[in-house]
Design a protein that fits this description.
Layout lengths: L1 H20 L2 E7 L17 H9 L1 E7 L5 H10 L3 H4 L18 H7 L3 E6 L31 E4 L2 E4 L5 E2 L2 E2 L2 E4 L7 H15 L5 E7 L6 E4 H4 L27 H4 L12 H31 L6 E7 L4 E2 L5 E2 L5 H4 E7 L7 E3 L3 E2 L3 H9 L13 H5 L9 E10 L6 E9 L3 E8 L6 E8 L17 H18 L1
Parallel strand pairs: 1-9, 1-11, 2-15, 2-16, 3-9, 8-10
Antiparallel strand pairs: 2-14, 4-5, 6-7, 11-14, 12-13, 17-18, 18-19, 19-20
The structure holds calcium ion (CA).
InterPro entries: Alkaline_phosphatase_core_sf (IPR017850), IDS (IPR035874), Sulfatase_CS (IPR024607), Sulfatase_N (IPR000917)
Family: Belongs to the sulfatase family.
Keywords: Calcium, Hydrolase, Metal-binding, Signal
C-alpha cells in the first residue's frame, strides 16, 4: 500500500518536474504597432504593461519585417521564409496555395507535443477566409465561441465586433473616442478568450498565439485611453518627403483615404492629423492594457517563470511623417517594428541594437524550446543576442515591396523594391520584377541619427562608392537567399 502511494507520489513529481523543463510560449502579435512605446524611449506613451514585459526580456530596437503589410509580414514570421521564397506579396492569397506543405512555427510546436491554440489575428489568411487549420491543435477560438451579447460582424480573418467600426452615413470614422464599455471592443474579447485559455491550459505545455487587431485603423478606443494624452501637446510631423526621394518610394495611403472626411488627395490638415495621432496613441494604450491581462494571467496561474513571451508588431507605420500615413513602403518607419522576447534563462531588462529579421523568430523559438529546427528556414536564431545583447549575428536586414502595374498573372507587379538596413544606412533598389537587371530607382538614407529620412544620398558623388558597395552586397544577399 505504502509503496503504491510512494510510486504515485514520485510519478506525480516526475510529471510536474518534466513539465517544468519544457517552456510554454505566449506569442503576441499586435497589428500595425509602431516601435513608439515608452520602453522604446517614447516617454509620453502610456504603455506600462509592454514596459513591464521589456523588463523581463530583451527589447530589439532594430527588428525588421520582411514586407511592410499584414499578410506577407505574417506569412514570413509564421513560416520562417522570405516573401520571395513564399511567392506571395498580396493580402488575398492564402500561403498554403503556394507552399501547401510548409510546416509553420505553430505547427512545428504542435508536431513536437505542444498544445497550440490561437485567438485574434495571427495569420492574415485573406478576406472571409478560414484560419490555417494545420497550425493549431483546435480550431481558432472565434470559430467556436459565440459572443452572444454583442452584435458581431465578420471582417477579414478575425471576428470583429461592431463597436470597432463607428460610422457616419455608412462611411467609417478613422478615429473615435468611444463611450461604450471596454468589453465591447474586439481586443477585450480576444484578451478574455486568451486569459481563459491560459487558465485552462496551465497544466499542459502550450503555444498560445494571441493577435490583437488595434492599433490598426480605425483608431477606436474607450475614452479613458484618449484621456491619457493631451492633444494640444501632440505635434504634427513636417509634411516633407526626403530630398531627391523617387516617387516610387511612398504609397498614397489609400487605406486611410477610404475613411470619413479624409481627402482623396493631398496632405491632411493639422487638426485631422492631430486627432489621428491622438487616436493611435489611445489605441496603443488600450492594447497595452489587454497585454497586461495576459501577463497577469500567466502570473496568477504560476506560469510566469516557465513561459517564453514574444511580442511583435507586424510592421511599422507612418503617423504623418513625410506628410504620409500607413505602411506599404520600404522606408525605415514602415519596416522597423517592435520585437520583445522574454525567455527563461535569457537576459532580462536589456535592449539591443543588433539587427534582427522576423524570419529569425522561428529558429529562435525552436532553440529556446529545445526543438530541432526544420530545414526550410531562411532566418537565424537570435539566442546569442538573447544571452548577450552586444552580440551581432547579421550585418543586414532585408525587406521588400512591390510597385507598379499588375503583370496580369499570379498577382505579381512589374516592379520589386528590395531594401537593406545596415548599421547606418538603408539602401533600396527598385528593379523590374521580370528583368531584375533593369533598375528603376536607387535610394540611400543615412539613419545613424534618426529613423526619419531627410535626403536620398544615392545620387551624390561622395556616396558613389558606398552605393556600389551596398548594391553588390544586396545582390549577393538576394542570390544567397534564393
Ligand atoms: Ca498590419
Amino acid at each position: 500500500m505504502n509503496r503504491i502511494i510512494l510510486i504515485a507520489f514520485f510519478s506525480t513529481l516526475f510529471v510536474v518536474t518534466g513539465k517544468a523543463q519544457k517552456p510554454n510560449v505566449l506569442f503576441i502579435a499586435v497589428d500595425d504597432l509602431r516601435p513608439e512605446l515608452n520602453c522604446y524611449g517614447a516617454e509620453y506613451m502610456v504603455t506600462p504593461n509592454i514596459d513591464r514585459l521589456a523588463k523581463e526580456g530583451v527589447l530589439f530596437h532594430r527588428a525588421y519585417c520582411q514586407q511592410a503589410v499584414c499578410a506577407p509580414s505574417r506569412n514570413s514570421m509564421m513560416t520562417g521564409l522570405r516573401p520571395d521564397a513564399i511567392g506571395i506579396y498580396d493580402l488575398q492569397t492564402f500561403f498554403r496555395t503556394k507552399i501547401p506543405d510548409v510546416v509553420t512555427l505553430a505547427e512545428h510546436f504542435k508536431n513536437n507535443g505542444y498544445r497550440t491554440e490561437t485567438t485574434g489575428k495571427i495569420f492574415h489568411t485573406g478576406h472571409g477566409n478560414k484560419d490555417d487549420r494545420k497550425s493549431w491543435s483546435v480550431p481558432k477560438w472565434e470559430q467556436r465561441e459565440i459572443l452572444n451579447n454583442i452584435q458581431k460582424i465578420t471582417r477579414g480573418d478575425t471576428a470583429n465586433l461592431q463597436s470597432d467600426f463607428p460610422s457616419i452615413d455608412g462611411q467609417r470614422l478613422p478615429y473615435y473616442c468611444s463611450d461604450e464599455p471596454e468589453e465591447n471592443m474586439t481586443d477585450a474579447a480576444i484578451a478574455k478568450i486568451a486569459t481563459d485559455r491560459i487558465m485552462e491550459l496551465k497544466d499542459s505545455t502550450f503555444f498560445l498565439a494571441v493577435g490583437f487587431i488595434k492599433p490598426h485603423l480605425p483608431f477606436v478606443s474607450p475614452r479613458k485611453y484618449w484621456d491619457l494624452y493631451d492633444e494640444s501637446k501632440i505635434s504634427v510631423p513636417a509634411r516633407k518627403s526626403p530630398d531627391a526621394m523617387p516617387d516610387i518610394s511612398l504609397a498614397t495611403f489609400g487605406e486611410l483615404r477610404k475613411y470619413h472626411d479624409i481627402p482623396a488627395t493631398g496632405y491632411l490638415d493639422d487638426e485631422t492629423s492631430r486627432k489621428l495621432i491622438h487616436g493611435y496613441y489611445a489605441a496603443v494604450s488600450m492594447i497595452d492594457s489587454q497585454i497586461g491581462k495576459l501577463l497577469d494571467a500567466l502570473e496568477e496561474n504560476g506560469l510566469a517563470e516557465n513561459t517564453i513571451i514574444v511580442l511583435w508588431g507586424d510592421h511599422g507605420w507612418k503617423l504623418g511623417e513625410y506628410g504620409s500615413w500607413c505602411k506599404h513602403s520600404n522606408m525605415e518607419l514602415d519596416t522597423n517594428a517592435p520585437l520583445i522576447i522574454a525567455a527563461p534563462g535569457m537576459a532580462k531588462n536589456v535592449q539591443t541594437r543588433s539587427l534582427a529579421e522576423f524570419i529569425d523568430v522561428y529558429p529562435t523559438l525552436c532553440d529556446l524550446a529545445g526543438l530541432e529546427k526544420p530545414r526550410h528556414l531562411d532566418g537565424q536564431s537570435l539566442v546569442p543576442v538573447l544571452k548577450n545583447p552586444e552580440v551581432e549575428i547579421k550585418d543586414a536586414a532585408i525587406s521588400q515591396y512591390p510597385r507598379g502595374k499588375s503583370l496580369g498573372y499570379d498577382r505579381k507587379m512589374e516592379i520589386m523594391g528590395y531594401s537593406m538596413r545596415t548599421e547606418n544606412y538603408r539602401f533600396t533598389r527598385w528593379q523590374k520584377y521580370e528583368n531584375p537587371e533593369e533598375v528603376v530607382a536607387i535610394e540611400l538614407y543615412d539613419h545613424s541619427g534618426s529613423k526619419v529620412a531627410t535626403m536620398n544620398l544615392a545620387g551624390k558623388s561622395e556616396y558613389k562608392q558606398e552605393v556600389e558597395r551596398l548594391n553588390k552586397m544586396l545582390t549577393k544577399k538576394l542570390s544567397n537567399a534564393n
